[in-house]
Amino acid sequence: MNQYDAVVIGGGHNGLVAAAYLARGGAKTLVLEARDNVGGASTTEQPWGPEFNVSALSYVVSLMPPRLVTELKLRQFGYKVYPQESYFMPRSDGDALVMGGKTPAEKRAEIARYSKRDAEALDKWNDWIGGLGAMLAPLLMQPAPVVGSKRPADLLSTARVGWRFRKLGVRGVADLTRLMTMSISDLLDNWFESPQVKAMLAVSGVIGTWAGPVEPGTAYVMLHHHIGDLGDGRVGQWGFAQGGMGGVANAIASSARSFGAEIRTGSPVAKILTREGRATGVVLNSGEEISADTVVTATHPKIAFLQQLDKSELPADFVTDIERWNSRSGVVKINLALAELPEFTSAPGTAPHIQGGTIAFAQDIEHIERAFQDARSGRAAELPFADMCIPSFFDSSLAPEGKHVMSMFTQWVPHTWADNPDQSALDAYADRMIDAVGELSPNLKGSILHRQVIGPREMQEGYGLIGGNIFHGELSPEQLFHLRPAPGYADYRTPVKNLYQASSATHGGGGVTGIPGLNVVEQIRRDRGLRRLKKF
Fold first, then answer.
1. In this structure, which of 119, 284, 392, 479 has its CB flanked by the most CB atoms within 10 Å?
2. Is residue 534 a part of any domain in this protein?
3. How many helices (H) and strands (E) does the chain have?
4. pLDDT of 85 over the 60 cut
5. 485 and 441 part of one domain
6. What is the dihedral of CA 353, 510, 30, 309, to 10 degrees?
7. Is residue 531 pLDDT above 80, yes or no?
């Protein structure tokens, strides 16, 4: 039997971060990845041959802590992010909302075309969101408290969180409470009047989520997407990874290897081994047994706890919590290879602040809500909405000269398609999405060389995203902070001693962050009484 200090199950970006830090601390570390390449949802693929490199699922970087980038020396291994500097929302009436390549005064003037009141409110809105984000961001960088526990250490942890919130004051706590419980639609109604402005801001409240904009809790999803930091102090900044999203995973994998970690792809884990309530290693599908003092699972919790462990090894209430873990989605990712850049009738010509940022197809909040209600009723959206980008505008390595790749992150189809797909309806949905965008960009359809459509079924079966959910679980109020993924286990521990969890379903997860991978190693250090992780 092969012996390691630590085994990490899952070579997605969080698993790779955990492995890099474990190896950096001196542990003999092995990563086991079921797929033939690392990265999980953060992957660059070549679906049409070597000419085009596509970020198959995740398409933007955010929330990556500067500390992680520095300590793992990621830039040394090719990590580079092009900041998303613009936001462009073309409209069916021939107009467009453009929020890129502009000074603050120009941005206010752009908003004032729709509403002078909204232009005046925008700066206050940004300050308000930024303040709440700055308060919450440090909480993502530490284990969530075990709320309700009477253990002295847990009581102290809970008290520290409460002490941090004292800075908010009565008014700030009320604002945060509303943000956690309100819909993004109601919240925006409190601040803005223009349908165009509200549509622009509402998109980030429903991305990757099985909830429409009128659903309670979507206001927090919006905030979650505003706590990003590319490492230069720009809170809420997003960006496009050089080499596609696989460039992020490959940089972390190279870092892990530089510290001595071993990474094995094509090595699915069949079972987590335990003895007397402790994790002792794993068994691969091949039958090979690997022994380890510490096991970290970075896969979806339903895979880790309902498939790779026997339920009898876990508390009954924990099993129930995992069984009830909501991991619905309805997302469809459409990737295109283009012969030329798309031009929009509302902004003719090649415009860096348009093709070089995010392009949103969302006419108003009612459009987004109708798309969700279609899927909720069991049919693919008649008129989907999409969050789009053209990363090859920045990165010439993704496509041949003069050609481009376009990412369309679209919503919604029925979440039940993860288990019961309807291929013909999925293809028709993709056709409608491309047709709708093509009405605003006349040269788009004629420039399509190839297309890739990845629905919930493909995400579940091909990438281990149960339900097709890119966050390994919905970012809804009942699945956040001390409840993610189960009460009492938001501190990266599990009911099995020496078995830890670090998937996107844990506290701080959701998006390409690496935060769970960083935090789980800190928890291992604390449990072992080590200020610095040393060889076990």
1. 392
2. no
3. 18, 18
4. yes
5. no
6. -150
7. no
CATH number at residue 300: 3.50.50.60
Could you report the per-residue pLDDT of 225-256, keeping only the tens digit for each?
Answer: 776 543 444 434 578 999 999 999 999 999 99
Q: Which domain holds residue 63?
A: 2-82+242-326+473-527
Distance of CA 96 to the CA centre of its chain: 27
Average pLDDT over residues 472-484: 91
352 and 454 fall within a common domain: yes
Nearest alpha carbon to residue 48 among 387, 405, 332: 405
328, 474 contact by CB (below 8 A): yes
Residues 450, 332, single domain; the answer is yes
Q: Give the span between the Cα atoms of 352 and 102, in whole angstroms.
A: 12
Give the Å distances, CA to CA, from 43 to 37, 275, 458, 462, 500: 8, 35, 14, 12, 24
pLDDT digits (tens, 9 = 90+) for 391-428: 999 899 999 999 999 999 999 999 999 999 999 999 99
Q: Within a domain: residue 234?
A: no
- Name residue, tokens 């809170």: 235
Has this prediction a pTM greater than 0.90? yes
Instruction: Render pLDDT for 246-298 as a digit per residue (tens, 0 to 9).
Output: 999 999 999 999 999 999 999 999 999 999 999 999 999 999 999 999 999 99
* Cβ atoms of 333 and 410 closer than 8 Å: yes
Give the phi and the psi of residue 7 in degrees, each rounded to 5.
-120, 130
Tens digit of each residue's pLDDT (9 = 90 or more) over 53-62: 999 999 988 7
> Which residues 6+ apart lie within 8 Å of 273 measured at CB?
279, 280, 281, 282, 283, 289, 291
Q: How far apart are CA 399 and CA 456, in angstroms?
A: 26
Closest CA to 46 of 343, 386, 400, 314: 400
Domain boundary residue, one of 466, 492, 509: 466
How many Å apart are CA 381 and CA 432, to the nearest integer?
9
The torsion angle over the Cα atoms of residues 31, 34, 37 and 42, rounded to 10 degrees, is -90
3-class secondary-structure state, position 264: strand
| Degrees, nearest 5: CA angle 428-431-436 | 130
Q: Are residues 8 and 136 in the same domain?
A: no
Task: Render pLDDT for 124-173 as a digit per residue (tens, 0 to 9).
Answer: 998 888 888 878 877 888 888 888 888 888 788 888 877 777 777 888 88
